[in-house]
Every structure is written in C-alpha cells, then in structure tokens.
Automatic annotation (TrEMBL):
Subcellular localization(s) per the UniProt record: Membrane
PANTHER family assigned to the protein according to its UniProt record, in alphabetical order: LEUCINE-SPECIFIC-BINDING PROTEIN (PTHR30483), PERIPLASMIC BINDING PROTEIN OF ABC TRANSPORTER FOR NATURAL AMINO ACIDS (PTHR30483:SF6)
Entry keywords, A to Z: Membrane, Receptor, Signal, Transmembrane, Transmembrane helix
The protein, known as: Receptor family ligand-binding protein
Pfam families in the cross-refs: ANF_receptor
Residues annotated as domain Receptor ligand binding region: 90-453
GO cellular component, one term: membrane
Signal peptide bounds: 1-22
Xref: InterPro entries: ANF_lig-bd_rcpt, BCAA_transport, Peripla_BP_I
Amino acid sequence: MRALWMTGVLSVLASGCSFTTAAGLDECETSADCGSDRVCTPEKLCLPLPVGCGTVYGSQSPDAIPIGGLFPVHSGTGVGAPIDESDEQALNAAVLAVEQINQRGIGGKQLALYFCDTGNDVGRAQRQAEWLVKEKKVPAMITAGSSQTLQVAQAVTIAASVVTLSYSATSPEVTDLPDKNGGQVGFVWRTSASDAIQGSVIANLLRNDARFGAPKKVGIFYVNDPYGQGLFNIVSERLDATPKVENEGDSYTRQGDVKAALDTLNQFDPDLTVLVGFASDVTTILTEAATRPNLQRSVHKWLFSDSVKDVAVLANGTASAQAQGFYGTAPAQGTGQAFRAFQSSFKDRFNKDPSAYAYTSNAYDAMYLLALGASYAQGTSGAVTGPKLAEGLTKVSSVQNSPVQLTSSSFTSLAAELAAGRSVNVDGASGALDFNNDTGEAPSPVELWQVAGNNFATIETIPAPRTTP
C-alpha cells in the first residue's frame, strides 16, 4: 500500500500539480518546514507525527543529543483514557534529570528528550520507536513496562544498534534477550530489577513471615501479559516447593472485564491473594472483590505487587478501604544521598513525594545513566552512537572504584571520568547500580510497604536473595 501511495504522489509531482491542492501534502527540506505537528520524511514530504509524539523536553538545539522516551502516561489509547499517575511521575523524574543535566552540559552539548505517550499500546510503542530511530536518529531510548520494552527491543532497537533502557520492565524474559547484534555489548538495559528477585521475596514472605498468617491456600491474580505471567510463574514455582501451601493462578486482561476471573478466585477461596496489576484495573478488582464472600477483608488478605503502588488506587473510596493495612512489595528506593537529593528536588519541582510511586527513582537514574553513557561516547569517539553509548554503560559499575552517589552535583566529575575513558562506580537514587554487563541489569533490594491511609508506608527493605530457589 505504501508503495502504491508513493507512486501516486510521484505521479502528482510529474504532472506539475502542487502537493497542497492535489494530494494534501507539502514539500519540505527539514522538519522545521513542516510546523510543530508534522515531520519531514526522507521523501521530502510533510506527514503527521506518530500519534502520541510531538513534545520535546530539554534543548531545542539541532546539535542536541536526542534521546527517545516511550512513557505510557495514559492507560489507554481511546479518547478520555485516564492518566497513569505512576508513569506520569516517572516521566517527570526523567524530565527533572534532563533539566539538571542540561544546566551542566555534556561536553558542550545538551540533551533533547523526545517524548511519546504510548497509551500502554505495544503496537503504538513500536511505531513510535521506529519514528524515533529513523527520523530523530536517537542512539538510545527510555521505555516502560515489560510488554512494551520487549516489543520495542525485538522489533526495532536491537537490530538498529540503539540502546533501550527501561525503568520498569521487570519480566525475567528481558534477561534472556539476544541483544548484542553481533557485537560484544548488549543494547537492552534496565534500572528495574528482574521479577526473579521480587517473586522470590514474595514467596519467602508467605512461607516464613508471621505477618501473613501462614496461608494454606494462596491465590495469584495477575494481568495476562509478560509482566504478570512472569511474576505468577515465579511465585507459583517457589510456593510449589512448599507442599503445605496450595496455590492457584487466575488471569485477567488489562482494561478488560475482571468479574469472571474474580468469580473463579472466589470459588478457590484463598486465605491470601497476591495481586499483580495496574492502578486502573486494581481499583476495579478491589471494588468487585468486596462483593464476593470469600474475598472480603474479614476473611481474606491481599499482598500487592509493585505496580499497585500508585496513589490513584487510594483515590477510590471503596478500593482504598479494601486495601487498608495490607502489604505490598516493590524494588526498593535508594537510601543514600542520591535518593535524598532526588526526593528534595522532585518535591520542589512537582510538589509531590516521589516515594509515593513505584519506579520514579529508576526513571531518574535511567536518564542520568544515558547522559553518562553519552559523555563516554562523545569523549572517546567524538560521536554519540548506540554502540558507544552501550559501551559507556559497562563503565559505571567498576568494582575497582569506591561508590559515588549519582547526584546533580557529582554528575560533572563523573561525566569527565567517563569522557576520558575511565570507569566509575555509581549509586543512584534507586540504589546501587551494580550492573551485570552481560545481562544489563543490577540486583535490587525489595521494599515491603503497607497501605496506610492515603499513602504507602515503607516497613522494611529486604536484601535481594543470594539465590532464587
């Protein structure tokens, strides 16, 4: 279809007709000729931007270092789709990092973050990624979530030797992606820990922690996507190693009807259910569960996964009442100066506490890490390319160096070390960034949190298990 359409356009050209009158198109030399809502294609035609794209944070300079940002700020693609507040605040965290980095510069250059709202749609995310790679020539992009990250990496970025750095993809499948594209360094990284860690912690809590009442029957109610499937499999496998604990999984489609799956869960009659889902669905799940006799809070407990940690859940009176006092897990926020500096700056800039949302510190660190990788690339080769930026990411976890807190104040000296080709060792706002350079991920402790009124209280930080049996 595209070839036929282009043939028609070329025919219009040959006839001498104008684009505007004959085909509704305008000629262009650069995207600046097309206005703010269109882009100049390689065929020198102005076409609309991909849906969800168009906003640029940071520098507008043509020599800025371009970074793509695929954030599911809306939880759907339809008109009136609700805001996903957790990912909105993750975007804010990345924007804050861009602003701080650009105050200092990277070898005389600044960052431009090309933001695209994926609407939590993997097809849209792929189209946006293709545009960012082909039209904006990004050497790297930040992504959210397991489904979108896997799709973008496999369909677009790996083959293009573009770095994908996710702040919230936790599926174990990410670990095993063949992402080196014939080279020595992988192109897929994440500042979020694999759910192999969180799933093991959840199973250990249910088996050994008196706060969960030694449940004999555990339900696992999970969103049917790579994130939910991965966490279900890990928790279920770990619990299967405990003969006295029976477990059953029930899945639901995101943004779909949850009633039938809840009826099945109600029939199983669990003592406790691990709930793996996102805010908009969780609100509905908790509200509906209150009408099922075996899922009411007087006879049943919940244990929430990381994606439930979103104050939007607590904005619904019924859902909030059902969640009060129950626990959840999430990758832990950092505890050092890097997190305290981030938290203070975030509160000043956005008047919100980032610790009320999962993955804000991970998104902040992701942007800083890409800036450090860009500094290495620029300093060692004179150009910021995907392969050189990925190589730079292998230089931030040196065991030969003492850890340095990655803050706006330390960025310049860390960037200078990397630009000179030397390695550093950084602890970020999300904690120690001790990357395994072969897998592109770092182990992370897990936070145990509890619903308390209109917020979430951190109860303790649980170290990552040495093994995940």
